[in-house]
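Batch manifest, entry 17 of 40.
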Amino acid sequence: FGSSSPVYTPPLSAQARAAVDEIDHALAKFDLGTYGICETSGDPIPTERLEAIPWARQQVQYKAGGLGRR
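Output type: structure tokens
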């Protein structure tokens, strides 16, 4: 402590950067009052999905590779 030298922070991987971007997007939606609303249908995203994936943008049936696409 007391050192004035900067701390090295390694750059984020593309995957980590994408995750941070998704979380930032979810936080912005929370501020706008649209968190938990499907961006495709406008319907509420089920609580269970948001508990599993808090940054989810869509209901599972609209997500690429989701149950509705099989």
